[in-house]
């Protein structure tokens, strides 16, 4: 679900901010207003929470801004602007197939008591822009994917196969961050990315950034404002993690204005159709808890327990464009189906089918779940056990169990066939990603054990780990 929090108390009475959390994307959208009219920056495709925030504030949406052509989701900007007869601000340099107000760095626009200044801030993308909104003595920086809380937006999304381009954009990102760093220190910093999104250049501890963050705060903690240009660029590009599979498709979808179209509703299917879908190779995604899935599931289905990460992992696993996806749940979790359909539509996966499992339906697929204590007990005499670590590269480098095979969760679908023979004990940090990976491997015919336990238990039980270089 998307939630809004009013940050108006951090500003003068003439300027208020409502931050709309978009946990399915790890992003935030912002509504900045003067009590009568407002500017919305980087809205998601699902406009419900944005419009509820405007209604709660009793303001009219008169302007919508996209800081860049997004790589991680389908923008709701064009549709929101059209619904409200608002200006849609987007860089004049971007080639798009829909009507917008093309803006350039240095442009100033007035909306009620708000003055909005456009800053050219290339780096995250070639034509990225940020927006400074001012009213009276108060200013806020809506930085999109440029200057984030403790980091910046990554620069390798335009062409993941071009390190030279990523390095060149990293230098531009440094220049942009330095320009933003010269704003008044009390300017409130309101980025879009950095709250779980893979668009951030580095992981950020969200717990440190729950309160207001200013531009001035960043001078002590943000590498872009602490390091020289070349060391910063080198450190940034060296730290990039994996790119979710759906990202490469978002730019063309957004350029043609895919978000203008209403979301296609889900198509409920009966049990016989569900069986046919499995036989035809459809991706049947079970939203129930990973525990319930392991105890019994429809053979051929995969487990992606409903959470804010659902769209990311479905987008990674399922061949584009979301080929024949069927979402299933039981009666207890049926309300999650609508949430999942919405989350998938946010990344351009539409036309999915849904099914509610009947209580009497036999669910004959099953595999074992275990904890680290079970692994410790079984390890000594299990010469056919294969420990599969599905965490990401940086987690693996931080320490792993001797003899483990590293296979990040997003690679399980196409590299799982290369795993050694034997019983696969699949683990991650918490059990969530391991549940996904175990189900995909089980779907492929492997014997699996889902290690559904916290990584911290490894140290508690005295299991030795080794660094990646060992």
From TrEMBL:
UniProt-listed InterPro entries: Metallo-B-lactamas, Mito_Persulfide_Diox, Rhodanese-like_dom, Rhodanese-like_dom_sf, RibonucZ/Hydroxyglut_hydro
Span of domain Rhodanese: 278-307, 381-467
SUPFAM superfamilies: Metallo-hydrolase/oxidoreductase, Rhodanese/Cell cycle control phosphatase
Listed Pfam families: Lactamase_B, Rhodanese
PANTHER family the record matches: PERSULFIDE DIOXYGENASE ETHE1 (PTHR43084), PERSULFIDE DIOXYGENASE ETHE1, MITOCHONDRIAL (PTHR43084:SF1)
Protein name (database record): MBL fold metallo-hydrolase
Origin species: Nocardioides marinquilinus
